[in-house]
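Batch manifest line 271
LIGAND: zinc ion
JOB: complex structure
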Amino acid sequence: MFTARTLLRTLSKQRPILRLYTASPLRTFSTTLIRMSSTPRHFAEDASHKHSLHVVDDKERLERAPYLSPPGPVKGPDGKEKEFKAEYTGQCFCGEVQFEIMGEPLDSSYCHCRDCQHMHGAPYTHHAIFPKSAVHFTKGAKENLIFYNPHEKKTEYKVPCKVTCKSCHSRIADEGNNMMLMLPGLIDWKDGKMAESFKATHHQYYKFRTEDIQDEKAKFDGWKGDEPVNDAAKKMKKEMDKEKKEKEEKEEKDEETVGDQGPDVKRRRKE
Ligand SMILES: [Zn+2]
Ligand SMILES: [Zn+2]
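JOB STATUS: finished
ARTIFACT:
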């Protein structure tokens, strides 16, 4: 069960920018961050009501990644800040919304949940996760995006939300508090072939599949790590549990070390 309290605790501990350059050990943790609901859907169910699409042109949004332009620096694992450098570019169907991405995804997955099926009109979706600072909109960020908050079923900019092109209605991304779930289908692949790093590592909410998928990827009936379906998923879950345990042990050790330095240091370190 992923409660609001655990979410807050997780968010307060994370340093998403550092993960831009990290490999698999942190991937599972990042995936946990985007668990937006404990229901078997991406977003909570609610009574339906009519809504009209509108553009949110709030100043605050445009002052932060990924809408900030020019983009801010991206912090590497060594703590040093690097200048944003576009490594991938992408756009919506009509081209009124364009974006660029720095670095490789923290994780990538196929989601078969009912929310995805409804909101994308597809049997399943493909998302690649990036810290917000690694994404930069080069066109349309101010006047050509519309937002939809599935929790409240409202067309307003309130994360987590769906980000869509106002003109052609292509889905651009799922925006969380710190992460962007980008859709690899929108990226301009240099040779027409998707980069290896964007390929999905697993299927989630596989129990809602419209048909069996014949691949070797890990399959979970719930979120990544929950209800493994095949051997690949069991193996992935084992690795996730191991990483989680190691991380917890390290944190405990760090706490003890800080504790030795007295309560004032301990308090300062926590702030
Ligand atoms: Zn468009
Ligand atoms: Zn989904």
